[in-house]
């Protein structure tokens, strides 16, 4: 009886592993967008927590206040990454039943 349960659990883990691999590929194609400064800086990140684009409104570029632009970029990047991590956690939770798996 115990060996049968172990085999069943191993098959379920293999199925989950395959689902996670497929989801990781899909999440690499999905993106989230975050803006700062009322849209002066817009950052797009994918589900691999990679920044795929940064758009800066030319009006936000003030040579006299570079620090503000840097702050806007930093805020938008951090928010995009946070949203990307949230998206990944939500989708992984659907597969894992919200089990915490190392490395995800």
From TrEMBL:
Residues 6-33 form a coiled coil. The keyword S-adenosyl-L-methionine does not apply. Pfam families: YbaB_DNA_bd (PF02575). GO terms for cellular component: bacterial nucleoid; cytosol. InterPro entries: YbaB-like_sf, YbaB/EbfC. Keywords: Coiled coil, Cytoplasm, DNA-binding. GO terms for molecular function: DNA binding. It is found in: Cytoplasm, Nucleoid. Binds to DNA and alters its conformation. May be involved in regulation of gene expression, nucleoid organization and DNA protection. Homodimer. Belongs to the YbaB/EbfC family. This is Nucleoid-associated protein MOHU_09650. It comes from Neomoorella humiferrea. The lineage of its organism: Bacteria, Bacillati, Bacillota, Clostridia, Neomoorellales.
């Amino acid at each position: 009886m115990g060996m049968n349960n172990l085999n069943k659990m191993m098959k379920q883990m293999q199925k989950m592993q395959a689902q996670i691999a497929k989801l990781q590929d899909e999440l690499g194609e999905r993106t989230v967008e975050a803006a700062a400064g009322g849209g002066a800086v817009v950052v797009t990140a994918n589900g691999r927590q990679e920044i795929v684009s940064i758009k800066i409104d030319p009006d936000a570029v003030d040579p006299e206040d570079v620090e503000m632009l840097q702050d806007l970029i930093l805020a938008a990047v951090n928010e995009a990454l946070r949203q990307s991590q949230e998206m990944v956690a939500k989708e992984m939770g659907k597969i894992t039943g919200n089990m915490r798996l190392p490395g995800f």
